[in-house]
Amino acid sequence: MDTRFRRLVRLIEKRASSLLPQGGEGGFALRLPGGPAAVFGAGDPAVTLVVHDPRGLAALSTLDATAIGEAYLRGLLDVEGDLRRLLALRDLFTDRHPLRYVYRFLRPLLFGQVASDRTWIAKHYDEDPDFYTLFLDRRHRCYSQGVFARDDEPLEDAMTRKLDFALEAVGARPGDRVLDVGGGWGAFTEHAGRRGIRVTSLTISAASERYIRALVEREGLPCRVVREHLFEHRPAERYDGIVNLGVTEHLPDYRATLRVYERLLKPGGKVCLDASATRTKHDVSDFFERYIFPGNGSPLCLHDYLAAVARSPFRLRVVHDDTHNYQLTTLHWAQNLDRHREEVERRWGAAQYRRFQVYLWGCVDGFSRDVIQAYRWVLQLP
């Protein structure tokens, strides 16, 4: 393994020379257990990647981000130090998987978008709700960005502010009927229902449906949950408002989704939305698509979305840049997950902890370096 290790060091040195910072911090180290470390970049390394097994060394030698991520999930590699620093070096590795990329878009053509979405959503959301509540905010269990008044504000207060914004944005009053697209763990349903607003919470996750139904019954809320895809939802009457918090990423056909909103909303009604974003549509890594959010979804591509809005009857009322808000939110989530590492590994396994550790700290890094962005916006039907 020592010979292959030295070969890998030379390979990384060739790539790292042009990608690592030339001064100050920013380097990383690579070593075998008990052996000396090979250091790349300037300054003391903030993170060390430890190779435990020949299979881990083989995965590293591919310089393929997915293969390396899979080796980490299996415990063939370990990280000592600041994982976020290592994730910031993702451009050192390749990410070319054309067949899997094409299949993301072929599957909905073969099996239908709605059926494909049900399968894909279940792979992320049909987990034990206890797992998510360990790292989400304790007050609302909201799985999208908060709105912070200051950087050191508690996550719970930032989430309350965002949910209040959503209610105000759609003008919801007691007795109004509001559609919540993607119920999650009942954050909006509970917040609005306690104010006498009649929320219909749509979800295609069985775990989410069970959680929200129990919440509605326990709290006596004037709300209901329906396990149904947005595209199939046909209520008896139109809604006064629509709220979509963090589901636009799973609805990449913007024109079709806007047509559904138009069909479901009363004239004059408003839609409040938020989402993570990238400047290029479908710009997600193969690892992210395979292990975090499978499917043909995409972070919001704002200019494409606004072009679709321009071709629809909707008026754009406001857009907020929430990139920093989402960075702070995912920082809280990542730190919460790390604090509960022992419990997560005991109840759901080390691979589950590592999967979400890479996901959440990767988001913190992405938002901080403007690799990914986030927005919150409001539409109105004339």
Describe this structure in words.
With about 375 residues, the chain is an alpha/beta fold. About 45% of the residues lie in helices and about 20% in strands. It has 16 helices and eleven strands. The protein has helices at about 1-20, 55-60, 65-75, 85, 100-110, 115-125, 130-135, 155-170, 185-195, 205-220, 255-265, 285-290, 300-310, 325-340, 340-350, 350-370; strands at about 30, 40, 45-50, 75-80, 175-180, 200-205, 225, 240-245, 265-275, 315-320, 375-380. It has a seven-stranded mixed beta sheet with strand order 7-6-5-8-9-11-10, with helices on both faces. Strand 8, helix 11 and strand 9 form a beta-alpha-beta unit. Helix 2 runs antiparallel to helix 3 and helix 15 (about 340-350) packs across helix 16. It is elongated and about 70 Å long. The mean pLDDT is about 95.
Keywords:
382 residues, alpha/beta, seven-stranded mixed beta sheet, 16 helices
Helicity, as a percent range: 40-55%
Structural class: alpha/beta
Average per-residue pLDDT, rounded, comes to 93
Q: What's the number of extended β-strand segments?
A: 11
The share of residues in extended strands comes to: 15-25%
Number of helices in the DSSP assignment: 16
Spatial shape: elongated
Low-confidence stretches: none
Distance between the termini: 68 Å
Radius of gyration, taken over Cα atoms and rounded to an integer in Å: 22 Å
Major sheet: arrangement of strands: 7-6-5-8-9-11-10
The major beta sheet can be summarized as: 7 strands, mixed
H/E element sequence: HEEEHHEHHHHHEHEHEEHEHHEHHHE
